[in-house]
Amino acid sequence: MKLDVERTEKDTYVPPRAMTIAGSDSGGGAGIQADLKTFSALQVYSSSVITAITAQNTTEVSGIHPVPSEFVEEQLVDVLEDIGTDSVKTGMLFNSDIVKTVVKVLKKYNITKVVVDPVMIASSGAKLLTDDTIEVVRSELLPIAYVLTPNIPEAEVLTGLTIKSIDDMKNAAKKLYDMGVKYPLIKGGHIAFNSQNVVAKNSKEATCITDVLYDGKDFYEESLEYIHTHNTHGTGCTLSSAIAAGLAKNESVLTAYRNARKYLQNAIKYSFNIGKGHGPLNHFHNSLLFPDNTTFVQTLKNYAKKEYSDYVNHEFVNRIADGTLPVDSFRYFLCQDYIYLTHYARVHAICGFKLNNLQEIAAEADIINIIRTETSLHIKYCESWGISLEELEKTKEASANMAYTRFCIEKGISGDILDLKVALFACLIGYGEIGLRIVNDPATKKENNPFYKWAENYAAELYQNSVTTGIAEIEKLAKEYIKPGDTKRINELCEIFRQACRLEANFFSMGLHKLE
Questions:
Q1: Looking at the 3D structure of the chain, how many domains does it have?
Q2: What is the domain extent for residue 29?
Q3: What's the longest Cα–Cα distance across the chain?
């Protein structure tokens, strides 16, 4: 029975859509179950076409019941005719008839963003592809693959090459590209390296693995932490479906891969000890539930409610707003702020050291350059207050300034990147709130107020955009670095934020009273 539903204009939004064409895993850790969990976790609407029903758990696949290719086609057509999709991920296709059917339908509907996970063997060792199907995969499926995600044994079967090194992985990727794959991605989980970057003799000495992505011109080698765990059931399914989710959102292949890898690493890191064999991943590790279902930022502010209020409503701030702040206090504050900017740059250098992704490291370098520009502007602003560069450079660092900046540096040295970003976050978000409040408050003295320009700078679009970016970044880091339900870790981070708010308030007191 078909239904035609009238839709209003507000109903026309279509979310990113991704489809999985794969087998069902009765244990829930791999196959379409893993794919659908991944799509949901990454906020993509998901559809599924089942190619086979398996009886399996974490230790074995005891039975496989393939779906007739005619019914696979019926599922595909029904979904594509009505719902459509922005990307497709293929997993276990099992036999040549199903492979040919899938290729035929995807070509008919001009589906180009196809992520092929050439599933051949399960984590338990069971064969998931008939022997006569491999040649059909090579000749028909690979040429329509936008991204191909074989592990090393699968890449060896598809290419006929032996893979023992990174160079071998590159050769395999190039051969797969020549076979029609637009973006071959060779997963390096079967070749681990030790701390000396030499192939590890065993898993105990393994510290990292390397994936190789090829675009027909350049190779991208991505080194990743080797996570010591038996809970790897569904890793291949999860990575390929996460890439498909990224492509559905119009991400580039490289961005989709990197985001997918980061998601997978954390899904493994926070996996579950379920079953007697290779346990499942935690696909919803990024759906952290903070107290009262708030965001991480709101959790920080709620935890440090008094300290945050004391900071953003400090007498120094209020006297900026009404224009009654002593000029000498403001000048002293500006001199100390000059010293603070230097340490602020140092802290962001530590941020770069804490990161492993070159793009993220480069972003911290960009921030340092922005701080350098901001320092030049600060020097000019100080000149307008009669403060020379010589006077700035001769200023003795006040105790409150030293306490705050060294606190941030210490968090960068002793903690991880999230500890450091939380220590810095009070400054970013608080000054943004202060600027907006002063500018938008009708009680603010705007005319003949020499301090008003200072507040305007923090209410300006440029600074507010940086606040928005900073909030998004810290929410993202929280999802990556906090284990779901780890209240101890959340409280530790909240304490860092609380202390940073206290130190910010002390910085204002230092300026107000010209404390040394």
A1: 2
A2: 13-187+229-262
A3: 85
Helical pair 452-459 and 315-322, crossing angle rounded to 10 deg: 110
Q: What is the CATH number of the domain that holds 238?
A: 3.40.1190.20
Same domain, 105 and 237: yes
What token pair was written down for 138? 């090579």
Decide if 8 is inside a domain: no
Other Cβ atoms within 10 Å of 225 Cβ, number: 13
Determine which one of 182, 187, 249, 301 is catalytic: 187
237 is catalytic: yes
The catalytic position among 90, 149, 159, 235 is 235
175 counts as catalytic? no
Active site residue 27: no
In this structure, is residue 348 part of a structural domain?
yes
Which of these is catalytic: 23, 31, 188, 234?
234
Helices (H) and strands (E) counted in the chain, each on its own, are: 19, 10
- Answer yes or no: do 149 and 34 share one domain: yes
**90-133 per-position pLDDT tens digit:** 999 989 999 999 999 999 999 999 999 998 876 555 566 777 89
Annotated catalytic residue: which of 20, 38, 51, 232?
232
Whether residue 254 is found in the same domain as residue 304: no
Interval 67-82: pLDDT, tens? 999 999 999 999 999 9
- The closest of 25, 47, 20, 46 to 233, measured between CA atoms, is 25
Q: How many residues does the chain have?
A: 516
Residue 220: both structure tokens together: 């991208």
DSSP string, 423-466: HHHHHHHHHHHHHHHHHH-TTS--TT-TTHHHHHHHHSHHHHHH
Output the domain CATH number for residue 335: 1.20.910.10
Assess whether 235 carries a catalytic annotation: yes
Q: What global pTM score does this model have? A: 0.62
Tell whether 240 and 377 lie within a shared domain: no
Whole-number Å distance between alpha carbons of 240 and 36: 12
Cβ atoms of residues 154 and 190 within 8 Å: no
Q: Is 130 known to be catalytic?
A: no
The verdict on whether 232 is a catalytic residue reads: yes
Question: Which residues on adjacent β-strands are paired with residue 148?
Answer: 116, 184
